[in-house]
Specification:
This protein is mainly β. The protein has a single domain (13-183), classed as Jelly Rolls. The chain has helices at residues 161-164, 169-183, and strands spanning 13-16, 19-22, 25-28, 42-48, 53-60, 68-74, 76-83, 94-100, 105-109, 113-119, 124-130, 139-141, 158-159. The two termini are 27 Å apart.
């Protein structure tokens, strides 16, 4: 059962990058290897033309579990994470924060944390740094409307049929726990 909204989940980190600016524009850099421990890193972009778009709540089960660094490089999003890790002190809790292209905020999510967002402005672009390969067989979705206490800020929303038909937290937590047990054998 999902318990409550908390300020931060165990192992989740946020940081703001420094930017340099001149007449050409701005430049931002951060060192990925300081943030995640992985030999395999990929980058994905989610382009969201319409305000109110909901994507999530997504995660991958083991052996394709992944750490994520999430940032909003254009526009603004309401970002949400749910802790699926049974050994975590924040298991079953969720957190939210606003990430946008002006606050330069990035969120580092450990393996076992489901993630989703809603666009707060049109033409929002979300960047993901991922530490594992995408596996459709291991990609899971939690129903973004089955999270007690979570009110998506934009009422006129757009969501895919796949995300709307996502599983419950309880099923997702069980699948994640079983996949990590099987991997340690």
């Amino acid at each position: 059962m999902i318990h409550k909204h908390v300020e931060v989940l165990e192992g989740v980190r946020t940081f703001a990058t420094q930017q340099t600016s001149d007449i050409r524009g701005t430049f931002t850099k951060f060192e990925l290897m300081d943030l995640v421990k992985s030999e395999s890193i990929s980058i994905a972009l989610s382009n969201n033309p319409k305000i109110g778009t909901i994507r999530g709540m997504h995660f991958q089960s083991a052996p394709f579990s992944e750490e994520k660094i999430v940032s909003c490089v254009q526009g603004s999003i309401f970002d949400v994470a749910i802790d699926l890790r049974p050994s975590s002190t924040t298991f079953g809790n969720w957190m939210s924060l606003e990430i946008n292209a002006l606050n330069f905020l990035h969120v580092v999510l450990p393996k076992g944390v489901a993630h989703g967002f809603q666009t707060l402005s049109s033409n929002s672009i979300v960047q993901y740094v991922l530490t594992n390969t995408f596996s459709p067989k291991h990609a899971m979705t939690i129903d973004p409307f089955a999270i007690p206490g979570l009110d998506w800020p934009v009422r006129d929303y757009i969501v895919s049929d796949k995300d709307r038909a996502g599983m419950t937290f309880e099923v997702a937590a069980r699948i994640y726990a079983e996949s990590t047990k099987n991997q340690s054998k």
